[in-house]
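Box 3.1. Reading complex inputs
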Amino acid sequence: MASVKLTKVKKIYDNKVVAVHDFDLDIKDKEFVVFVGPSGCGKSTTLRMIAGLEEISDGTVEIDGEVVNDLQPKDRGIAMVFQNYALYPHMTVYDNIAFSLRLQKLPEDVIYDKVTNAAEILGITEYLTRKPRALSGGQRQRVAIGRAMVRDSKVFLMDEPLSNLDAKLRNQMRAEIILLRQKLDTTFIYVTHDQTEAMTLGDRIVIMKDGFIMQVGTPTEVFEMPRNLFVAEFIGAPMMNIIKTELLKEDGEYYVRPFGVKLPVDGVKGERLKAKNAAPGEILLGVRPEHMVLAKEGDAGAIPCRLEVNEMMGSELHLHVYTEDETRMIVRVPTVGLETDQREALVAGAKLYVTFEGKVMHFFDPASEENLLNE
Amino acid sequence: MNEHNEKRHMGLKASTRISNTVIYILLILMSVIWLIPFICIVLQSFRVESTWQVGYVIPRQWGWDNYIALWNSDFKRWYLNTFIIALFTAALQTVIVLCMSYTLSRFRFKMRAGLMRLMLILGLFPNMLAMIVLYRVLKDLGLTQANAVPGLILVYVASSGMGYYVSKGFFDTIPKSLDEAARIDGATRAQVLTKIILPLAKPIVIYTILTAFMAPWGDFVLARYISFGTSSGMNVAVGMYSWLQLDQIGQRYTMFCAGGVVVAIPVTILFMCLQRYYVEGVTGGAVKG
């Protein structure tokens, strides 16, 4: 158990490419922090710098108050699970898990206890005598986790540990990681490109792009109050709908006019716009697909659309619609509230109306792409 | 439909059988042609009725005379010299080649690519070109003629780092994440090499040992040059060559054949013991395939 502090950490490769820019982050003891972002955003590089597998070009990494920049990986008190498992193929599962303990020259009976205990927690006891090649992907990943577990490390690092598993197994392992975290009760740093994993696992999420931190916050914070357009689009599935429109101020009240339909910005968002005294003008309006609702012709604020694709997801429909000016939007409709005739009417080419409330709106500056409501 | 499939299956089976038969006949023929000289040498080595070449293959009188004569000649010394040279060269060269290959495969340092290119270019020049210089250097060090054994070991081992290509290529195929996992588990670089990489690279380690042993075992040109007519510094190839001179071949021909058999024994044993590792693939299951 330990805190991890990164101060102005920078990674510059030999070819002068800057992979990570001035990364500042304080990770508290026993916190589960997830680094998330698209490929090449520097999340794995940052994790590898914490692990000691990548040289730190500038800045400091502290683990439990000690600067570890010049320490070997083995001396940093960390354990790591790799994306591709990285199991030693010539050793049995038992020997794989026991490898680090043998290097520490622990007595064999202590090693036996630790390995069997970890195997029991992970449900791999019956595979201890097998070689990695005789295991399935999920079992191999458990062995990799077991290998990290027995080290009793201060910080647990995971580099996209679920990305090689199929969707069903990934969901199962995700739940198991949550349970594992409860059992180990230690500091976790987890890297993923999957925002669902980030949202479900992390106490805090660090969203990265091109080597910069875009936002650090709890899953609720980043979902409800994205700092910029990138975070707004990255977090949430399907992606947030972005509409180019204008912000109006009439008699002290704020309005937006997407596709010529005037909608009041009421509720919390309206209050905050007023408090910030936001300047009217061109904005990018963000509305999440689940916050758009189907409306009827003639309803106040109903935006006319044409349905192009209807994706049946089971509990909900993802409707890909086009407005009159050919802007594409996605609307998420729960199937539970739909009558059969309503559902049958949702076919390609159908005309429908959507609307949304002021409290679900997000406002971004078209130039800086920053959220207008940022503190 | 089923009948059609069955016929097709039968047809395939028959054609496979014919092609297999042809392949096996060819292979047997090639093996026989390839083995005849060896069989002849073995048979000649047991011939006792004459020490000179005769017009038949199967000896009329069999015996160990040639082997006993070998034992009582300088051959013993040459054999020991060769064995010492090959053993030391195999051990030292294997260590150097594997360390060099691991370094070039895993470390990134300035001039790494330049060094590899330089070694490749140097390797293209025939060894003969360096012979005069080598002789001069070894002579100044007192490592020629009677002291040719350490001299030859030095020469063979000195250039061994340049033979990194094959093993480096193999090491490159072992995922680097295994090194990283081991380093996080607490292994030093040396432990990563000995406990993770080398067990996974068994075929290439065996290949390195075999080639490092075989090259000095059969070397003639350099060994003859460095030993320069001094019997106590010769290896078997150089020593036995002296038996093929006109004044000696009459008395030494069958002894020469016996020597050939004795020289082949350790190499054959070594190869038989180690060859199964050549084909053994051990990397399955390391990382997500």
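In summary: Chain A has two domains: 4-233, 238-364.
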